[in-house]
Amino acid sequence: MTKQQERARARRRWEKRQAALARKEEQRARVRRVGAVVGVVALVVGLLAVLGVTLGNLGTDEAAPAATPSPGGTTLAGCEQPPQPLGTGAELELPDASAAEGKTFEATLTTNCGDIVLALDGTKAPQAVAAFTELARTNYYQDSPCHRLTTTDALKVLQCGDPTGTGQGNPGFGYGVENAPADGTYPRGTVAMARTSDPEEGTGAQFFLVYGDSTLPDPDGYTVVGTVTSGLDIVDRVAAQGVAPNAASPQDGAPAAPISILRVAVTEEKS
Question: Does the pTM exceed 0.90?
């Protein structure tokens, strides 16, 4: 074998080793990339789990954990079988706050378990009350499930107001927080508007009924629109059944005992 042939043979061996090393390095890089992706996914899932219960913000739409669109579970004694949700959103325009300024209203939520009556205060939350009364007038709340029950020590609320029953629906408009308690406390009987993480435009149609003294430390708070004047015992009965067994969290999800708003009637209180 000539020296030239030996050099060529050595060159081929060197190239083969370099190719093998390159393949090994690519495999290691691939493992690192997969590990990074898995880590990011785990982090996102963890953050979403936290957001779902805390920020969940009583989150209307994006933040709220999705509920089962069709009412399930065991209907309480004295309750009718809830209707199927209409499954539609809306593209409505935000009504002017002046429609409720200086006024108070009575809203009757007719549910499959009986009437829940609310006193709405437009003197303290004119934009929210104007929006609520307009949504009631246009039958936005018709056949809408109360899709989220929270039963933690700090937060005891039933969330309603989404005609899709998923927690993802919205009326096509949003507005800012008003009349939020500075100390983040929401006493039993409080009616407040749920929202997304955006305090400026994240409030829409969804609201929550507080059935036990609750604390929400969010610095921007949630708009308090009024109080429950009768029918809170209905919410108590629903809450006593807890969260549906298929919920992501045992303390935050669709109620085990389904309750739906069939219609909402609002009348202005005359002084």
Answer: no
Q: What is the model's pLDDT at position 201?
A: 96
Please report whether residue 238 resides in a domain: yes
* Distance of alpha carbon 71 from alpha carbon 68, whole angstroms: 7
Give the H/E segment covering residue 66. none
| Per-residue model confidence (pLDDT) at position 52 | 37
Within a 13 Å sphere around the CA of 11, how many CA atoms are in the beta-carbon half?
6
- Let me know: does 77 contact 93? Beta carbons within 8 Å: no
DSSP-assigned letters across all residues of 182-199:
TT-EE-TTEEEEEE-S-T
Which pLDDT score is estimated for 74? 84
131 occurs within a structural domain: yes
User: Does 185 reside within a domain?
Assistant: yes
What is the DSSP code (8-state) at residue 255?
Answer: B
248 within some domain: yes
The backbone torsions φ and ψ at residue 109, rounded to the nearest 5 degrees and listed phi first, read: -90, 105
Q: How many domains does the chain have?
A: 1
Phi/psi at 235 (5° precision): -65, -40
CATH of the domain at 58: 2.40.100.10
In which residue ranges of the chain is pLDDT below 70? 1-72, 89
* Of residues 58, 102, 98, the one with CA closest to residue 203: 58
What range does the domain containing 197 cover? 54-268
pLDDT of residue 86: 84
- Which residues, at least 6 apart from 226, have a Cβ–Cβ distance to it below 8 Å? 107, 118, 119, 120, 121, 125, 129, 191
